[in-house]
User: What shape does this take?
Amino acid sequence: MNPLIGITCHHDFEYLYMLNSSYVQSITEAGGIPLLLAMGMKNDVSVLVDRLDGLVLSGGFDINPLFYGEEPIQELGEIYPGRDDNEMELVRAFLQADKPVLGICRGHQVLNVVQGGTMYQDIHTQIEGNVLQHIQRARRDHLSHRVQILDDSKLSKIYGTSSILVNSYHHQAVKEVGDSLKVCGTSSDGIVEAIVSEKHNFVVGVQWHPEDTACSGDAPSKKLFAAFVEACS
Ligand code: MN
Assistant: This one.
């Protein structure tokens, strides 16, 4: 049976739920059945964990820094604290049940914060030295910078290589890594680009957007979705 995979959406708490269609396409092409989760409606999280086989945390705006013990700096972007609450509750339940979680961009950051990690609110002002262009000025399926993959890690097994090219659309990054999470991918400027839980079967966060590049046929991106959907099966 094809696994049922919940995907969180952006919610503006007025009119709109929003999700790029590339998430749906990537999960479908990898053999999963995507279900968009209407967060913010006081879902019973225990029911979602029981019925879903896996969870994708989609990209979006910044996390309220109060969740990791900081006040907002000037360069913090837009925040939707209600989405943070909902996603964090859902992630805790999935981790508790040890069901697969794939965190993408903001979702990778949510995973880290749930596990007690912290964030750079803005890498360009908070990190000294040269930082790469992490908000690429190119199409979403353009592969703009390298990520070095940790040897003998879950990701090196998935990709079968020690370096991949990724797209990049973030101005924040993981600072202190949360409990039981291990950095398995970094860019050449030292930014944390991928984290994997050492305690769970499949809990992976990536700072890039593999859904956009999987849809245009990028082999490593398709391998990541294939591995995730297999873990959900
Ligand atoms: Mn990047």
